[in-house]
Amino acid sequence: MEEKVEIALAGFAEDLTNNPPSIDDVSERVKQYMLANINDFYGSTVALIDTSGLAIYSPYWFKSNDALDEVNLADTSYHINTQEWLRLPIDTGEAIWTDPYFDEGGGNIWMITRSVPVYIDGKIAAVATTDLEVTPLDD
């Protein structure tokens, strides 16, 4: 499943680079990406980044019962700018997989996240992600 995520997310990130997202259209674009992958992926966001490297808007679409639901991860209660899935791609400029974690305030499940920096005019303008639900291992 990780390979499927990597391929789909790389294509989505390329589309975002070629057709830069805006606050006005990014939520709908994430929703359409999730609808195309609803049977395999748990959730996705595109975090729009300002010139100081901080997320300003991050519509997160995720499975909720038999439908999709949306929250804005840039809401101050989530502390998006301290999340590993966002910071590592911004700080390294590379795509990453997170270790399993409980996403409190986002999907509220155990997951792993694939995060890809989106470059526009040579600078990181967004981080696109896809989440897979995982079962935590007992210690």
Describe the structure.
The chain is an alpha+beta fold. The chain has a single domain, classed as Beta-Lactamase, CATH 3.30.450.20. It is built from 3 helices and 8 strands. Strand 7 and strand 8 form a beta hairpin. The longest helix is centred in the first third of the chain and has 17 residues. The radius of gyration is 14 Å and the shape is globular.
State the major sheet.
8 strands, antiparallel
Total strand count, please?
8
Would you list the SSEs in sequence order as H and E?
HHEEEEHEEEE
Shape: globular
For the record, what CATH class applies? Alpha Beta
Terminus-to-terminus distance? 25 Å
Q: How many helix segments?
A: 3
Q: What's the number of domains?
A: 1
Q: Which parts are unreliable, with pLDDT below 50 for 5 consecutive residues or more?
A: none
At a glance:
This protein has 139 residues and is an alpha+beta fold.
Search tags:
single chain, 139 residues, alpha+beta, Beta-Lactamase, 3 helices, 35% strand
Give the secondary structure arrangement, pairings included.
Elements: H1 2-18, H2 26-36, E1 43-49, E2 55-57, E3 59-64, E4 67-72, H3 84-92, E5 96-97, E6 101-102, E7 110-120, E8 123-133
Antiparallel strand pairs: 1-2, 1-3, 1-8, 3-4, 5-7, 6-7, 7-8
